[in-house]
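Check these lines:
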Amino acid sequence: MADSRASRIAAWIAGLRPRNRLVLSGLLGALAALGQAPWGLWPLTIAGLALLYAVLRLATTATGWKGAFWIGLAAGSGYFALSLNWIVEPFLVDIARHGWMAPFALIGLSVGLALFWGAAFALVRCAGGRAPAFVAALVLGEAARTYLLTGFPWAQTGHALIATPFLHWASFGGSLLLSALVASAAVALWHILTGPRLAAAFTLAAFAALHGAGMMLTPAPATDTSAPTLRIIQPNAPQHEKWDPEKIPVFFDRQIRFTAAPPETTGAPPPSLIIWPETAVPVLLNRAGPTLDVIADAADGVPVVLGMQRIDGQRFFNSLVVLDETGQVGALYDKHHLVPFGEYIPFGDTLQHFGISAFAAQAGNGYSPGPGARLVDLGDLGQALPLICYEGVFPQDVRAAPARPDMLLLITNDAWFGQVSGPYQHLAQARLRSAEQGLPMIRVANTGVSALIDPAGRVVDSIPLGQAGWRDVRLPPPLAPTIYARMGDAPILALAAFVLVLSFLQHRRTARHR
Protein backbone atom coordinates (compact mmCIF):
# COMPACT_ATOMS: atom_id res chain seq x y z
CA MET A 1 0.00 0.00 0.00
CA ALA A 2 2.76 2.45 0.94
CA ASP A 3 4.63 1.55 -2.26
CA SER A 4 1.63 2.28 -4.44
CA ARG A 5 0.88 5.57 -2.73
CA ALA A 6 4.49 6.68 -3.00
CA SER A 7 4.54 5.66 -6.66
CA ARG A 8 1.40 7.68 -7.36
CA ILE A 9 2.84 10.72 -5.58
CA ALA A 10 6.09 10.35 -7.51
CA ALA A 11 4.26 10.04 -10.83
CA TRP A 12 2.11 13.05 -10.02
CA ILE A 13 5.14 15.18 -9.14
CA ALA A 14 7.01 14.11 -12.27
CA GLY A 15 4.03 15.00 -14.44
CA LEU A 16 3.42 18.50 -13.09
CA ARG A 17 3.72 21.50 -15.37
CA PRO A 18 6.71 23.72 -14.50
CA ARG A 19 4.49 26.52 -13.13
CA ASN A 20 2.50 24.13 -10.96
CA ARG A 21 5.73 22.55 -9.76
CA LEU A 22 6.93 25.92 -8.50
CA VAL A 23 3.63 26.56 -6.74
CA LEU A 24 3.87 23.15 -5.08
CA SER A 25 7.46 23.88 -4.02
CA GLY A 26 6.39 27.17 -2.42
CA LEU A 27 3.60 25.44 -0.50
CA LEU A 28 5.94 22.69 0.68
CA GLY A 29 8.40 25.35 1.84
CA ALA A 30 5.64 26.99 3.87
CA LEU A 31 4.76 23.57 5.32
CA ALA A 32 8.38 23.10 6.41
CA ALA A 33 8.30 26.52 8.13
CA LEU A 34 5.70 25.26 10.63
CA GLY A 35 8.50 23.69 12.65
CA GLN A 36 9.66 27.16 13.70
CA ALA A 37 8.49 28.79 16.93
CA PRO A 38 5.81 29.44 18.03
CA TRP A 39 4.24 26.52 16.15
CA GLY A 40 6.99 23.97 16.86
CA LEU A 41 5.56 21.34 14.50
CA TRP A 42 8.97 19.89 13.68
CA PRO A 43 7.67 16.67 12.03
CA LEU A 44 6.09 18.93 9.39
CA THR A 45 9.49 20.45 8.68
CA ILE A 46 10.81 16.97 8.00
CA ALA A 47 7.75 16.05 5.89
CA GLY A 48 7.95 19.29 3.88
CA LEU A 49 11.65 18.81 3.15
CA ALA A 50 11.07 15.14 2.27
CA LEU A 51 8.57 16.13 -0.40
CA LEU A 52 10.83 18.92 -1.65
CA TYR A 53 13.61 16.36 -1.99
CA ALA A 54 11.21 14.25 -4.04
CA VAL A 55 10.33 17.22 -6.27
CA LEU A 56 14.02 17.92 -6.78
CA ARG A 57 14.82 14.33 -7.72
CA LEU A 58 11.80 13.68 -9.91
CA ALA A 59 11.28 16.97 -11.69
CA THR A 60 14.75 18.20 -12.61
CA THR A 61 16.27 15.30 -14.48
CA ALA A 62 15.53 17.02 -17.78
CA THR A 63 15.78 20.67 -16.73
CA GLY A 64 19.07 20.26 -14.86
CA TRP A 65 20.53 22.73 -12.39
CA LYS A 66 18.48 25.66 -13.68
CA GLY A 67 15.22 23.86 -12.94
CA ALA A 68 16.56 22.87 -9.53
CA PHE A 69 17.47 26.49 -8.79
CA TRP A 70 13.92 27.66 -9.49
CA ILE A 71 12.46 24.91 -7.31
CA GLY A 72 14.78 25.91 -4.47
CA LEU A 73 13.93 29.59 -4.95
CA ALA A 74 10.19 28.87 -4.84
CA ALA A 75 10.54 26.58 -1.82
CA GLY A 76 12.70 29.05 0.07
CA SER A 77 10.34 31.92 -0.72
CA GLY A 78 7.42 30.00 0.79
CA TYR A 79 9.50 28.93 3.77
CA PHE A 80 10.80 32.37 4.65
CA ALA A 81 7.57 34.20 3.88
CA LEU A 82 5.82 32.21 6.61
CA SER A 83 8.64 31.84 9.13
CA LEU A 84 9.72 35.51 8.89
CA ASN A 85 6.29 37.12 8.62
CA TRP A 86 7.17 39.15 11.73
CA ILE A 87 9.39 41.36 9.55
CA VAL A 88 6.31 43.46 8.70
CA GLU A 89 5.82 44.46 12.35
CA PRO A 90 8.38 47.33 12.48
CA PHE A 91 6.62 48.97 9.53
CA LEU A 92 3.29 48.87 11.34
CA VAL A 93 4.52 50.89 14.34
CA ASP A 94 3.83 54.05 12.32
CA ILE A 95 1.51 52.54 9.75
CA ALA A 96 0.55 55.84 8.15
CA ARG A 97 4.15 56.57 7.18
CA HIS A 98 5.73 53.15 6.78
CA GLY A 99 2.93 50.62 6.39
CA TRP A 100 3.14 50.61 2.59
CA MET A 101 6.68 49.19 2.82
CA ALA A 102 5.68 46.10 4.83
CA PRO A 103 4.80 43.76 1.92
CA PHE A 104 7.90 44.82 -0.01
CA ALA A 105 10.07 44.08 3.02
CA LEU A 106 8.57 40.60 3.45
CA ILE A 107 8.80 39.74 -0.24
CA GLY A 108 12.29 41.16 -0.59
CA LEU A 109 13.66 39.37 2.47
CA SER A 110 11.96 36.06 1.60
CA VAL A 111 13.18 35.99 -2.00
CA GLY A 112 16.63 37.25 -1.02
CA LEU A 113 17.14 34.46 1.50
CA ALA A 114 15.55 31.96 -0.88
CA LEU A 115 18.48 32.55 -3.24
CA PHE A 116 20.55 30.46 -0.82
CA TRP A 117 18.06 27.61 -1.14
CA GLY A 118 18.06 28.01 -4.91
CA ALA A 119 21.86 27.77 -5.00
CA ALA A 120 21.80 24.74 -2.69
CA PHE A 121 19.22 22.92 -4.82
CA ALA A 122 21.23 23.68 -7.96
CA LEU A 123 24.33 22.19 -6.33
CA VAL A 124 22.38 19.07 -5.41
CA ARG A 125 21.28 18.61 -9.00
CA CYS A 126 24.83 19.12 -10.29
CA ALA A 127 26.02 16.48 -7.82
CA GLY A 128 23.51 13.91 -9.04
CA GLY A 129 20.51 14.73 -6.82
CA ARG A 130 21.18 12.04 -4.24
CA ALA A 131 20.57 12.13 -0.50
CA PRO A 132 24.11 12.90 0.75
CA ALA A 133 24.37 15.86 -1.62
CA PHE A 134 20.96 17.16 -0.48
CA VAL A 135 21.97 17.11 3.18
CA ALA A 136 25.41 18.62 2.56
CA ALA A 137 24.17 21.38 0.26
CA LEU A 138 21.41 22.46 2.66
CA VAL A 139 23.92 22.64 5.52
CA LEU A 140 26.29 24.74 3.41
CA GLY A 141 23.41 26.97 2.32
CA GLU A 142 22.42 27.62 5.93
CA ALA A 143 26.07 28.33 6.77
CA ALA A 144 26.33 30.78 3.88
CA ARG A 145 23.43 32.88 5.11
CA THR A 146 24.93 32.80 8.60
CA TYR A 147 28.26 34.25 7.53
CA LEU A 148 27.99 36.01 4.16
CA LEU A 149 27.45 39.77 3.95
CA THR A 150 26.26 40.73 7.45
CA GLY A 151 24.67 37.29 7.98
CA PHE A 152 21.08 36.36 8.77
CA PRO A 153 20.81 32.85 10.28
CA TRP A 154 17.24 33.34 11.50
CA ALA A 155 14.82 30.41 10.95
CA GLN A 156 17.39 27.78 10.02
CA THR A 157 15.76 24.43 9.35
CA GLY A 158 17.56 23.00 12.38
CA HIS A 159 15.85 25.55 14.63
CA ALA A 160 12.76 23.36 14.41
CA LEU A 161 14.51 21.01 16.87
CA ILE A 162 15.29 23.60 19.57
CA ALA A 163 12.25 22.70 21.69
CA THR A 164 13.10 18.97 21.54
CA PRO A 165 15.76 16.74 23.18
CA PHE A 166 17.79 17.12 19.96
CA LEU A 167 18.90 20.49 21.37
CA HIS A 168 21.52 18.60 23.40
CA TRP A 169 23.44 17.83 20.19
CA ALA A 170 23.93 21.53 19.48
CA SER A 171 26.69 21.33 22.09
CA PHE A 172 28.56 19.11 19.60
CA GLY A 173 27.86 20.75 16.24
CA GLY A 174 25.74 23.84 16.76
CA SER A 175 22.72 24.79 14.71
CA LEU A 176 24.25 23.40 11.51
CA LEU A 177 24.32 19.90 13.02
CA LEU A 178 20.63 20.27 13.86
CA SER A 179 19.97 21.29 10.25
CA ALA A 180 21.88 18.23 9.06
CA LEU A 181 19.73 16.01 11.30
CA VAL A 182 16.53 17.52 9.89
CA ALA A 183 17.67 17.11 6.28
CA SER A 184 18.86 13.53 6.91
CA ALA A 185 15.54 12.56 8.44
CA ALA A 186 13.72 14.15 5.50
CA VAL A 187 15.56 12.18 2.79
CA ALA A 188 15.28 8.99 4.87
CA LEU A 189 11.53 9.51 5.18
CA TRP A 190 11.16 9.67 1.40
CA HIS A 191 13.42 6.69 0.77
CA ILE A 192 11.69 4.53 3.38
CA LEU A 193 8.69 4.75 1.05
CA THR A 194 10.48 4.43 -2.28
CA GLY A 195 13.87 2.81 -1.61
CA PRO A 196 16.65 2.14 -0.92
CA ARG A 197 14.98 1.16 2.33
CA LEU A 198 17.85 -0.32 4.32
CA ALA A 199 19.90 2.88 4.45
CA ALA A 200 16.74 4.92 5.06
CA ALA A 201 15.64 2.68 7.93
CA PHE A 202 19.09 2.90 9.49
CA THR A 203 19.05 6.71 9.22
CA LEU A 204 15.62 7.02 10.82
CA ALA A 205 16.64 4.60 13.58
CA ALA A 206 19.74 6.71 14.27
CA PHE A 207 17.56 9.84 14.31
CA ALA A 208 15.27 8.26 16.90
CA ALA A 209 18.26 7.06 18.93
CA LEU A 210 19.67 10.60 19.03
CA HIS A 211 16.32 11.84 20.31
CA GLY A 212 16.36 9.32 23.16
CA ALA A 213 20.02 9.90 23.92
CA GLY A 214 19.40 13.64 24.04
CA MET A 215 16.80 13.08 26.75
CA MET A 216 19.16 10.95 28.81
CA LEU A 217 22.36 12.97 28.35
CA THR A 218 20.96 16.45 28.97
CA PRO A 219 22.30 17.52 32.39
CA ALA A 220 19.76 17.73 35.19
CA PRO A 221 18.69 21.26 36.19
CA ALA A 222 20.84 22.90 38.86
CA THR A 223 19.12 23.14 42.26
CA ASP A 224 21.68 25.09 44.30
CA THR A 225 19.70 27.31 46.68
CA SER A 226 22.88 29.23 47.52
CA ALA A 227 23.34 30.39 43.92
CA PRO A 228 23.30 34.18 43.45
CA THR A 229 19.98 35.83 42.68
CA LEU A 230 19.40 38.14 39.74
CA ARG A 231 16.43 40.38 39.10
CA ILE A 232 15.17 40.65 35.53
CA ILE A 233 12.85 43.55 34.70
CA GLN A 234 10.38 43.76 31.80
CA PRO A 235 8.56 47.14 31.50
CA ASN A 236 6.39 46.06 28.53
CA ALA A 237 6.55 49.30 26.54
CA PRO A 238 4.76 48.95 23.16
CA GLN A 239 7.01 50.29 20.42
CA HIS A 240 4.55 52.95 19.28
CA GLU A 241 4.48 54.31 22.87
CA LYS A 242 8.09 53.73 23.94
CA TRP A 243 9.33 57.21 22.94
CA ASP A 244 6.03 59.07 23.45
CA PRO A 245 6.91 62.00 25.81
CA GLU A 246 3.75 61.35 27.83
CA LYS A 247 4.50 57.62 28.17
CA ILE A 248 8.24 57.76 28.86
CA PRO A 249 7.78 58.60 32.58
CA VAL A 250 5.26 55.77 32.93
CA PHE A 251 7.67 53.11 31.71
CA PHE A 252 10.65 54.58 33.56
CA ASP A 253 8.75 54.78 36.86
CA ARG A 254 7.57 51.19 36.33
CA GLN A 255 11.17 50.01 36.11
CA ILE A 256 12.11 52.03 39.18
CA ARG A 257 9.30 50.37 41.16
CA PHE A 258 10.36 46.92 40.02
CA THR A 259 13.98 47.73 40.93
CA ALA A 260 13.09 48.87 44.46
CA ALA A 261 10.61 46.06 45.17
CA PRO A 262 11.47 43.75 48.08
CA PRO A 263 12.50 40.15 47.32
CA GLU A 264 9.72 37.85 46.19
CA THR A 265 10.25 35.61 49.23
CA THR A 266 10.05 37.14 52.71
CA GLY A 267 13.45 37.11 54.36
CA ALA A 268 15.30 36.29 51.14
CA PRO A 269 18.50 38.25 50.43
CA PRO A 270 18.35 41.08 47.90
CA PRO A 271 19.42 40.29 44.34
CA SER A 272 23.10 40.48 43.48
CA LEU A 273 22.38 42.15 40.13
CA ILE A 274 19.41 43.93 38.52
CA ILE A 275 19.03 43.97 34.73
CA TRP A 276 17.01 46.41 32.65
CA PRO A 277 16.39 45.81 28.90
CA GLU A 278 17.77 47.42 25.75
CA THR A 279 17.35 51.22 25.48
CA ALA A 280 15.50 51.19 28.81
CA VAL A 281 16.83 54.57 29.95
CA PRO A 282 15.15 57.44 28.06
CA VAL A 283 18.16 59.79 28.05
CA LEU A 284 21.62 59.65 26.51
CA LEU A 285 24.37 58.35 28.78
CA ASN A 286 26.23 61.62 28.28
CA ARG A 287 23.38 63.52 29.98
CA ALA A 288 22.11 60.83 32.34
CA GLY A 289 23.74 61.83 35.64
CA PRO A 290 20.53 62.68 37.55
CA THR A 291 18.69 59.74 35.99
CA LEU A 292 21.40 57.30 37.00
CA ASP A 293 21.27 58.69 40.55
CA VAL A 294 17.54 57.86 40.70
CA ILE A 295 18.23 54.32 39.47
CA ALA A 296 21.07 53.83 41.95
CA ASP A 297 18.87 55.01 44.83
CA ALA A 298 16.16 52.51 43.84
CA ALA A 299 18.74 49.72 43.59
CA ASP A 300 20.03 50.54 47.09
CA GLY A 301 23.60 49.37 46.58
CA VAL A 302 22.90 46.59 44.07
CA PRO A 303 24.68 46.84 40.69
CA VAL A 304 22.37 47.48 37.73
CA VAL A 305 22.77 46.62 34.05
CA LEU A 306 21.08 49.18 31.80
CA GLY A 307 20.42 49.43 28.10
CA MET A 308 20.81 52.99 26.86
CA GLN A 309 22.10 55.11 24.02
CA ARG A 310 25.15 57.33 24.02
CA ILE A 311 26.81 59.82 21.72
CA ASP A 312 30.50 60.33 20.97
CA GLY A 313 31.08 63.34 18.75
CA GLN A 314 28.40 62.93 16.12
CA ARG A 315 28.23 59.14 16.39
CA PHE A 316 25.44 57.32 18.25
CA PHE A 317 25.91 53.96 19.94
CA ASN A 318 23.46 51.35 21.24
CA SER A 319 25.07 50.48 24.57
CA LEU A 320 24.96 48.35 27.68
CA VAL A 321 26.08 50.05 30.90
CA VAL A 322 26.89 48.49 34.27
CA LEU A 323 26.27 50.74 37.27
CA ASP A 324 28.34 49.59 40.22
CA GLU A 325 27.32 49.55 43.89
CA THR A 326 28.05 53.28 44.19
CA GLY A 327 25.97 54.24 41.14
CA GLN A 328 29.02 54.93 38.94
CA VAL A 329 29.47 53.55 35.43
CA GLY A 330 31.67 50.51 35.98
CA ALA A 331 31.62 48.96 32.51
CA LEU A 332 30.42 49.91 29.03
CA TYR A 333 29.72 47.84 25.92
CA ASP A 334 28.69 49.17 22.51
CA LYS A 335 26.73 46.91 20.17
CA HIS A 336 29.00 45.96 17.29
CA HIS A 337 26.81 43.74 15.05
CA LEU A 338 24.18 46.19 13.84
CA VAL A 339 20.98 45.53 11.89
CA PRO A 340 21.39 46.68 8.27
CA PHE A 341 18.67 49.13 7.18
CA GLY A 342 17.33 49.07 10.76
CA GLU A 343 20.23 50.55 12.73
CA TYR A 344 22.43 51.72 9.87
CA ILE A 345 22.48 51.96 6.08
CA PRO A 346 25.17 49.84 4.42
CA PHE A 347 27.88 51.98 2.79
CA GLY A 348 26.29 55.08 4.34
CA ASP A 349 29.67 56.45 5.47
CA THR A 350 31.12 55.80 2.01
CA LEU A 351 28.32 57.78 0.37
CA GLN A 352 29.26 60.79 2.47
CA HIS A 353 32.47 61.08 0.46
CA PHE A 354 30.25 61.77 -2.55
CA GLY A 355 28.25 64.45 -0.77
CA ILE A 356 25.39 62.17 0.40
CA SER A 357 25.36 62.37 4.20
CA ALA A 358 21.75 61.41 4.96
CA PHE A 359 22.79 57.76 5.55
CA ALA A 360 26.17 58.33 7.22
CA ALA A 361 26.49 56.94 10.74
CA GLN A 362 29.54 59.13 11.31
CA ALA A 363 27.25 62.13 10.83
CA GLY A 364 24.76 60.85 13.40
CA ASN A 365 22.40 59.18 10.93
CA GLY A 366 22.01 55.73 12.44
CA TYR A 367 24.14 53.85 14.94
CA SER A 368 27.87 53.26 14.69
CA PRO A 369 29.27 49.81 15.57
CA GLY A 370 31.32 49.24 18.69
CA PRO A 371 34.83 47.76 18.51
CA GLY A 372 33.70 44.16 18.95
CA ALA A 373 32.89 41.46 21.46
CA ARG A 374 34.18 41.99 24.99
CA LEU A 375 33.53 40.74 28.51
CA VAL A 376 32.18 42.82 31.38
CA ASP A 377 33.14 42.17 34.98
CA LEU A 378 30.17 41.59 37.28
CA GLY A 379 32.22 41.16 40.44
CA ASP A 380 31.46 38.02 42.43
CA LEU A 381 29.06 36.85 39.70
CA GLY A 382 31.94 36.49 37.25
CA GLN A 383 32.51 37.60 33.68
CA ALA A 384 29.57 38.11 31.31
CA LEU A 385 29.50 38.33 27.52
CA PRO A 386 27.07 41.16 26.69
CA LEU A 387 24.81 40.78 23.67
CA ILE A 388 22.32 43.37 22.48
CA CYS A 389 19.22 42.14 20.63
CA TYR A 390 20.15 40.88 17.16
CA GLU A 391 23.63 39.78 18.29
CA GLY A 392 22.09 36.81 20.07
CA VAL A 393 21.21 35.08 16.78
CA PHE A 394 24.85 34.83 15.62
CA PRO A 395 26.90 31.90 16.95
CA GLN A 396 30.04 33.63 15.66
CA ASP A 397 29.36 36.67 17.85
CA VAL A 398 29.32 34.45 20.94
CA ARG A 399 32.45 32.60 19.90
CA ALA A 400 34.19 35.95 19.26
CA ALA A 401 34.48 36.54 23.03
CA PRO A 402 38.11 37.17 24.02
CA ALA A 403 37.82 34.52 26.78
CA ARG A 404 35.23 32.06 28.01
CA PRO A 405 32.63 33.96 30.07
CA ASP A 406 30.68 32.63 33.03
CA MET A 407 27.36 33.65 31.49
CA LEU A 408 25.70 35.26 28.48
CA LEU A 409 23.90 38.55 29.15
CA LEU A 410 21.42 39.54 26.46
CA ILE A 411 19.26 42.67 26.57
CA THR A 412 16.73 43.29 23.82
CA ASN A 413 13.67 45.23 22.69
CA ASP A 414 11.43 42.59 21.12
CA ALA A 415 8.54 45.06 20.83
CA TRP A 416 9.75 45.50 17.24
CA PHE A 417 8.86 41.86 16.51
CA GLY A 418 5.15 42.03 17.31
CA GLN A 419 3.11 39.52 19.29
CA VAL A 420 2.99 36.41 17.09
CA SER A 421 6.18 34.66 16.00
CA GLY A 422 9.20 36.98 16.16
CA PRO A 423 9.67 37.14 19.97
CA TYR A 424 9.36 33.36 20.32
CA GLN A 425 11.86 32.69 17.54
CA HIS A 426 14.26 35.16 19.13
CA LEU A 427 13.90 33.35 22.46
CA ALA A 428 14.47 29.98 20.78
CA GLN A 429 17.76 31.18 19.34
CA ALA A 430 18.83 32.37 22.79
CA ARG A 431 18.20 28.85 24.07
CA LEU A 432 20.32 27.51 21.22
CA ARG A 433 23.25 29.79 22.09
CA SER A 434 23.20 28.56 25.70
CA ALA A 435 23.11 24.91 24.65
CA GLU A 436 25.91 25.41 22.12
CA GLN A 437 28.22 26.97 24.69
CA GLY A 438 27.12 25.26 27.91
CA LEU A 439 26.55 28.69 29.46
CA PRO A 440 23.56 30.17 31.30
CA MET A 441 21.91 33.18 29.71
CA ILE A 442 20.14 36.09 31.35
CA ARG A 443 17.74 37.42 28.71
CA VAL A 444 15.92 40.66 29.49
CA ALA A 445 13.45 42.20 27.04
CA ASN A 446 11.53 45.45 26.99
CA THR A 447 8.72 43.15 26.04
CA GLY A 448 9.03 39.75 24.51
CA VAL A 449 9.94 36.89 26.76
CA SER A 450 12.43 37.83 29.46
CA ALA A 451 13.95 34.63 30.79
CA LEU A 452 16.70 32.85 32.64
CA ILE A 453 18.05 30.04 30.46
CA ASP A 454 20.22 27.31 31.94
CA PRO A 455 23.40 25.90 30.28
CA ALA A 456 21.39 23.09 28.67
CA GLY A 457 19.10 25.59 26.90
CA ARG A 458 16.10 25.17 29.20
CA VAL A 459 13.99 28.16 30.22
CA VAL A 460 14.15 28.11 34.05
CA ASP A 461 11.87 31.09 34.63
CA SER A 462 10.35 33.77 32.43
CA ILE A 463 8.09 36.79 32.13
CA PRO A 464 5.51 36.16 29.39
CA LEU A 465 5.18 38.19 26.21
CA GLY A 466 3.10 41.32 26.64
CA GLN A 467 3.33 41.47 30.42
CA ALA A 468 5.13 43.93 32.68
CA GLY A 469 6.86 42.44 35.69
CA TRP A 470 10.03 41.26 37.37
CA ARG A 471 11.49 38.00 38.55
CA ASP A 472 14.17 37.07 41.05
CA VAL A 473 15.99 34.11 39.53
CA ARG A 474 18.96 32.05 40.66
CA LEU A 475 21.92 31.94 38.31
CA PRO A 476 22.99 28.35 37.52
CA PRO A 477 26.71 27.62 37.11
CA PRO A 478 28.20 27.11 33.64
CA LEU A 479 29.04 23.68 32.32
CA ALA A 480 32.47 22.66 31.07
CA PRO A 481 33.29 24.05 27.61
CA THR A 482 31.39 22.09 24.97
CA ILE A 483 32.86 20.62 21.81
CA TYR A 484 31.10 23.35 19.87
CA ALA A 485 32.56 26.03 22.16
CA ARG A 486 36.03 24.70 21.34
CA MET A 487 35.65 24.03 17.61
CA GLY A 488 32.66 25.99 16.32
CA ASP A 489 31.18 25.26 12.91
CA ALA A 490 34.45 24.19 11.26
CA PRO A 491 33.99 20.38 11.64
CA ILE A 492 30.43 20.26 10.28
CA LEU A 493 31.34 22.64 7.43
CA ALA A 494 34.37 20.55 6.49
CA LEU A 495 32.29 17.35 6.55
CA ALA A 496 29.52 18.88 4.44
CA ALA A 497 32.01 20.19 1.88
CA PHE A 498 33.73 16.77 1.76
CA VAL A 499 30.42 14.95 1.20
CA LEU A 500 29.41 17.37 -1.55
CA VAL A 501 32.76 16.98 -3.35
CA LEU A 502 32.48 13.19 -3.14
CA SER A 503 28.95 13.42 -4.54
CA PHE A 504 30.20 15.50 -7.47
CA LEU A 505 32.98 13.00 -8.22
CA GLN A 506 30.64 10.02 -7.95
CA HIS A 507 28.13 11.68 -10.26
CA ARG A 508 30.81 12.43 -12.85
CA ARG A 509 32.11 8.86 -12.68
CA THR A 510 28.59 7.46 -13.11
CA ALA A 511 27.85 9.81 -16.01
CA ARG A 512 31.10 8.81 -17.73
CA HIS A 513 30.23 5.12 -17.49
CA ARG A 514 26.78 5.80 -18.93
